[in-house]
Design brief:
heterodimer; A: alpha+beta; five-stranded antiparallel sheet; 4 helices; about 20% strand; B: 1 helix; about 20% helix
Amino acid sequence: MGSVEPLFVVVVTCLIICIGLAIRDAHLKSRAETRGLQLLADNLSADQLHQYRTRGYFDAIGCVSGNRYRIAFGTVQNVVQIDRSGEPELGRCFMPEGNLVAGDCMLAQKIAIENCEEEVLRTSLPFQVLKANRFR
Amino acid sequence: MARHIVMDPSGHSSFQFDKNNISSLAEAERRYNELMGKGYMPAEVKGGGTHHVPKPRQRSFDPDADETIFIPALKGG
């Protein structure tokens, strides 16, 4: 019985440390997400910000083709090209390297579409868009 | 004060510098060149949700830029 107690203390201590680290990581992640979304909000046009707050996505116009792209919250498969009738046409999957939060990623996608569309088209991987989804 | 904003997993890091201070400008230029070497894309904030991104061969430190956002290189997902 005497040898079990120290083991129990070690296990409980490890558990407490793990829980503490998990809480700290969650806090840092949440703070990073908030900072990313604030940077995004600071860098959207008034129309884009209104669209994002009311619909959960915003549109950016390609600097070369004039095509409209819709950027939804997220970091992966969150950009679609919109056709002339306003319907999602083709997904364009691209993002900045590194493990960026959603706000940063969406801002990078907007700036790239509006300033270097050729690079976006060269880099992105196309994906099929379901008709009923978050982009409508 | 001018500002460099570098996107990273923390949501971004912000570096302020004084455009009228030579050593502060030199530090900002060193940071700019280091980030260019790592493949970052500089986007100068123009206000109203607009930005200016120079062509790759025309990228050099602009001491007059008030705010520049540095975006890691793009990749396909």
